[in-house]
Specification:
It contains twelve helices and ten strands. The chain is an alpha/beta fold. It has an eight-stranded parallel beta barrel with strand order 1-2-3-6-7-8-9-10, surrounded by five helices. A hairpin with a 5-residue loop joins β4 and β5. The longest helix is centred in the middle third of the chain and has 17 residues. It is globular, with a radius of gyration of 19 Å. It starts with a strand and ends in a 12-residue tail after the last helix. The structure holds zinc ion.
């Protein structure tokens, strides 16, 4: 059976969540600061939270219950802040219109920018509680976020991501020699990369963001799910199944609430969850995760505990 994990916003973590994880026999918890344009601020706020005695007590409580805590987040803008990009125009990506712009990510053909990222990644990783063996520091959260400069034009978004991750991992491994880093496959990076020379230490994290949550991934009549799962054989062939992680959206109440509070009532599809979990297991995924954001204290005050029973590890 694959291991399971739920991803929540750091500010939503409380004892009730830890109780819920215990009742579901979910052995891991992913802290996921809010993504989007302000992902750098929410990541910084999470790091500050780690320094408070109240939050440390919660993390210790999780540890004493045998719950592994990881961090999974869009980290690029935090690692490469706006002012650094502004000061180094050559680090900026070139957009589809041919303009250098500091809006997303960077130019992966710029070695100086990669060295900067590498050092920043080491410093960030050193601040993560317990220095988890698996880290998920994702690039910016957007479509069309890669570089179209002369040097990068012929490099696919997937391979551009490989180049950046390789630089991040170099930094992280200066702190923790056996750390591994997630390759997030979603949007433009769903197609398998080709740079096998860069894949050591990277594991697959498959996130079918554009799937239909009301139908099983294997539903051949569902065009969205067919499209999202089509690259899986090539991705698994490239990365192998070691640490391979499926990150799904079954309980992502932030998505269902269109990223706006107050949260809506979560209406999960238990049959879909069970069918998809079996699907991932058959493919050899070692870990199955779901976002479960917007299900904290404010949600419970409105609707009570969310029904997550279809995610129980023994179901
Ligand atoms: Zn470039």
């Amino acid at each position: 059976m694959p291991a399971t994990s739920l991803l929540i916003h750091p500010e939503e973590l409380d004892k009730t969540w830890l109780d819920q994880l215990g009742a579901l026999r979910v052995g891991a918890l992913g802290l996921h600061p809010v993504g989007g344009k302000r992902a750098d601020e929410t990541l910084a706020a999470m790091l500050d939270r780690f320094e408070t005695p109240e939050y440390r007590a919660l993390l210790e409580d999780a540890e004493s219950r045998g719950i592994e805590v990881t961090c999974e987040m869009h980290a690029l803008r935090y690692l490469l802040p706006e002012d650094a990009l502004a000061a180094h125009p050559a680090w900026q990506r070139v957009n589809m219109a041919g303009q250098r712009t500091p809006d997303f990510n960077l130019c992966p053909s710029c070695g100086e920018a990669l060295d900067f990222l590498s050092e920043r990644a080491a410093a960030l990783y050193a601040r993560l509680p317990g220095r988890p063996r698996r880290a998920a520091l994702w690039l910016d959260d957007s479509r069309d976020a890669f570089c179209h400069c002369e040097k990068c034009r012929g490099i696919s978004p997937s391979d551009q991501q490989m180049i950046v991750l390789h630089a991040l991992l170099r930094g992280i491994r200066s702190v923790q020699a056996d750390a591994r880093l997630a390759y997030l496959a979603y949007f433009e990076t769903l197609p398998a990369p080709t740079r096998r020379d860069l894949k050591d230490g990277l594991y697959l994290e498959f996130a079918p963001y554009q799937r239909d949550l009301t139908r099983p991934l294997e539903d051949a009549a569902c065009e969205a799910n067919r499209r999202e799962t089509a690259p899986l054989p090539a991705l698994l062939d490239f990365f192998g199944t070691e640490d391979a992680t499926a990150l799904d959206y079954w309980f992502d109440n932030s998505l269902l609430s269109r990223y706006t509070k107050p949260p809506r009532k979560l209406e999960p599809h238990p049959d879909v969850v069970r069918a998809d979990m079996a699907f991932y297991r058959r493919l050899g995924f070692q870990r199955v995760e779901s976002f479960a954001c917007y299900l904290g204290a404010d949600y419970r005050a409105l609707y009570g505990l969310p029904d997550l029973t279809s995610f129980r590890a023994d179901e």
